[in-house]
Amino acid sequence: MASPPPSPLTHTAGRRVPPPCWTPEETLALARAYTARRLAVGRAHLTSADWSAVAAAATPSKTARQCRHKVEKLRRRLRSKKRRPCPILDGIDLLDDPSSSPSPPPPASPLPSPSPPKKRKRPDAEYAVDDDGESDVVQALRAIGEGFVRAELRRMEADREAQRMRMEMALRQLDAQRRLLEGLVGRIVDALE
After folding, report:
1. How far is 103 from 132, CA to CA, in rounded Å?
2. Which is more confident, 109 or 36?
3. 3-state SS of 101-133?
4. Angle, alpha carbons 72-76-78 (nearest 5°)
């Protein structure tokens, strides 16, 4: 008797289980749970127990390992300079700037989150926070955006200048044609007289 063909979701020799699909709602819930837990532990690295708490708070259908891998993937994507436009990632800026959340969830543990009085950078910290609450990532993204705006303004000015030069050339050409026609008409009139 022949065995049924293996399902694409089971392990077979050389095959892997496809990664779980994350809905935008699950991703946003994960980002909020991660941010709350990270603040609760004083921005330190999360332990496996912390990741279990994040997974339980974010979505019951995902494991702590899946949640950790998803957060790592999102953080890499947010840090990349060639960030493709993605509406899901616009809500994930919560990972770097928790004050931008309209209604942040309460922290999972009763530990108060210390607010840094000045910019600090620790060797184990992945980013530093300024007095106004902006992280290095947010500042870098803002600087990149301002650079794009300046480049676009320069491009628009160059386009205006090129258009002005084209119009001047067209006016010169029309003037030359007008003088040529006047000369021809003058010769024809002189020849007729």
Report:
1. 19
2. 36
3. CCCCCCCCCCCCCCCCCCCCCCCCCCCCECCCC
4. 115
- Token pair of 164 as six digits: 């002005």
Nearest Cα to Cα of residue 79 among 122, 7, 136, 13: 136
Predicted local distance difference test score (pLDDT) of residue 117? 53
* 170: its two tokens: 């067209």
pLDDT for 28: 84
Residue type (1 letter), 168: E
Tell me the one-letter amino acid at 174: L
Asked if 29 contacts 45 with a C-beta cutoff of 8 angstroms, the reply is: no
Give the global pTM: 0.39
In the chain, the percentage of residues whose pLDDT exceeds 90 is: 24
At residue 4, the 3 state secondary structure works out as coil
Spacing of C-alpha 65 from chain mean position: 24
Q: How far apart are CA 157 and CA 146, in angstroms?
A: 17
Residue 45: Cβ-neighbour burial (10 angstroms; 0-12, 13-18, 19+)? exposed
User: Mean pLDDT throughout 25-41?
Assistant: 86
